[in-house]
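Good morning C.,

I know you're traveling, so I'll keep this short. The sequence:
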Amino acid sequence: MTPIFGGLVDPTATVNLQLDEAKGWGGVIGLDFFPKEWLTIGLTYQSRIALEYDVTYDSGTNANGFALLNQSGFTDGGTVRSDLPALFGAGVNIQATQKLRYEASFRYYFNRDADLGKTQGGEALSDKISDSIEFGIAFEYAFMPKLKGSLGYLYSGVGGNVDFMTPELPELDANTFAGGIAWEVIRDLDLQFAGGMATYRGQTTSSGAISYDRNVPFLSFGVQYTF
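The tokens, ready to paste straight into the viewer:
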């Protein structure tokens, strides 16, 4: 794999980098409103959480790898900053009929107000990206008292810049479609099955060196017990 840090690519570099665990503090506030018996509105805000990681070079990093890491701000024995951005979220839950329920949700991530580290040129990474948004909608229908089905859609606009992504974790805008069923086997015990597809928007770096594009199918199974 070609190492990429802060938008800099070096096919001759070998790196083995460890970031130690970071701890931070933040605040969360949430409010729920019930203007009607069939309507619930929720609001939440989470503050930015400052995180600072200790950097350690492990064995296996060659001379070009050391140079690449130092240029990107990863100094052995030093620290790097990568905050969790503040976010605002809102959701609406509507019980349309005795059998049909639907909901919508929205989240906004304040990436540009967080300290996300620096680029290889020493510029703030938060100046190279945009804020992120997510929007979702879902429907649930009770076919029988003990069997429910649901369908959902989620749009994710991550606000990333492909020139500052790594091949392992490209942050791409995505459309996700999913469906599932919940079966109440016995009182208070549900079995849940779900599946779907996440389709990511393809992007290419400004140099044309790397293209990102992927679709990810998924399946899940869960057990829920209420007491």
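Safe travels,
E.
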